[in-house]
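Box 3.1 A note on notation
Throughout this textbook, protein chains are presented in two layers. The first layer is the amino acid sequence; the second is a token string describing backbone geometry. Keep the layers aligned when reading.
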Amino acid sequence: MSAFGFFAHLGALALIVAPVAAQDVTARGAVFHDRNGDGVRDAGEPGLADVGVSNGREIVHTDEQGRYRIGLDDDDIVFVLKPRGWRTPVDEDRIPRFFHIHKPAGSPASEYPGVAPTGPLPESVDFPLTPQEEPERFEILLFGDPQPRDQKEIDYLAHTVVEPLLGSDAAFGVTLGDILYDDLSLFGSINRTIALIGIPWYNVLGNHDINFDAEDDARSDETFESVYGPSYYSFDYGPVHFLVLDDVHWKGRVTDSEAHVGRNYTGGLGEDQLEFIRRDLEAIPDDQLVVLFMHIPLIAPWVEPERERLYRMLEKRPLAMSVSAHYHYQEHLWLTEKDGWRGAEPHHHVIAVTTCGSWWRGVPDEQGIPVTTMRDGAPHGWLSMTFDGSEYVMDYHAAREPGNQQMHVWAPESFARRQAHVTELLVNVYNGSERSRVEFRLDGAGDWSPLTQTARPDPYYEEAKGRETESLPREWKLPGAIPSPHLWSAHFPRGLEAGQHRLDVRTTDPWGRTFETSRSFRVDDR
């Protein structure tokens, strides 16, 4: 049997051997070099030493022969922590298979099926790895909230986001939660769509990816786990350590109104996950960059002691940053003491642009796809991160915009010469932040003049809202604007000559890179 057929047959498993009749509460096995890539440990395939294996609480490391043992209960997932220079198998949908689900009785009954009964624990739970080149410099892709309600919206994702990325040479991609919008039967369809990009794809649990009929948080992830495995885990790629977190704390189905189903959650981690994070970070050198992926931003409502405990673990590390989604706008934050962060340097936390923008809403374009601009005035799209050793840069990719468009400029088409000094220029820099510099100049000459960051709604977004007709159903209209966290303002100078003029705008990002755009405007002699 081919490796492809082998893993397709296993479904949620990345390993298999003959089971024994009796249930064993201790998982035993090996992490091994799968030389022929068939997923089965054959004679002559050596074990790999000092590789982490976890049950979601403890982490053990393999011995010199690649062997490990770890305790399990009857509702556990055991998984390998992928080390640098090795890859785990992926299934036909490019989903990494690095885990074994041990759930002898299966998942509780729910609207969307969870894990089928797994039966007795195998005698040996082995994890196959194969070597791969992982250079110091590499790129990854980040999708915030695809969140399709149905197949039509998965098709929107395919045409606006997936198609531009076909053949990407990124190392891997990550969906930052809200993979779907409540209908968990669509996991297979969206996985097949994103798989067209052709790279391994990891997934974060979002608040719309859980079973709303679950009585508690522990049971809310059952369908997600049946498709993707553990809801939190870690792995190395190149010089970077990645931690994927489950920060959706489901508080149980509400009883007062069906309309509130899906809202009864907060940010949180739970004791088992906090212990896993603690043990995981203990093994990571202080000079290694740690990147955390989560769905709910660190600034959102959380179970406060849990956020504080996460901060205390991260504050010891000079090289750590985190990325979330959830809010359907783009923002760079540098957390400080006012946010509860006590580290010597601010913590960089990014709330990522969403691939669905404003939930696939707005006036349709010529292809029938809603404009779906986000509430901060930025277009829907995706992020990429390029790593080089312990350093990184982040790029914003606007869907359906030409080239490498990084901003839009709002200014009147024309204004009176005598009104120039009170005529405003606004620039929305999609990936902008408090550490960006935005400047303008006129007619391609002279000094560059600074713009000032301002917290206001984007005027283009408000204009788009104004164009929505009464015939557009209310549930498909764009949501209300928010003060954009990446908007800059200035006024035109006095003394402009009447006639047509050129306006150049440039922005310099926190990594020292400069992006420019230009447009024309007219000054009337009145």
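The chain has three domains: 1-132, 134-398, 407-524. Residues 1-132 form a domain with the Immunoglobulin-like fold (CATH 2.60.40.10).
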